[in-house]
Amino acid sequence: QVQLVESGGGLVQPGESLRLSCTVSGSGFRINAMGWYRQAPGKQRELVAEITTGGSTNYAVAVKGRFTISRDNAKNTLYLQMNSLKPEDTAVYYCNAVRFFWSWGQGTQVTVSS
User: Fold this and answer.
1) Which residue of 35, 50, 101, 110 has the lowest C-beta tally within 10 Å?
2) CA nearest 91: which of 18, 2, 32?
3) How far is it, in rounded angstroms, from Cα 29 to Cα 16?
4) What pLDDT, in 10s, does the model give residues 45-91?
5) What distance in Å separates the CA atoms of residue 36 and residue 94, rounded to the nearest whole number?
């Protein structure tokens, strides 16, 4: 059974950076495209970045140029480097596959506020 554990969130000021990590236990990480999702209060969960097994990436317009998704298949870990953070990036961030969903992890809270 796959388990997703996100970490790295926190409280930062606008313009600062954070690096999120997602460790995936069980099988399946290496053979699936993966994504970072976020859910802000009162809003639906949205996909912000995705990466294929071959390393191709795609980003939501709102984060393009500021966020970078990467993966380390040897460590079964997904990363999200977030630069130039804005208050509107405040949300709980989750990782999961993109063509289907495993059970969601607990997420990691990112709060951007001055």
Assistant:
1) 101
2) 18
3) 30
4) 999 999 999 999 999 999 999 999 999 999 999 999 999 999 999 99
5) 6
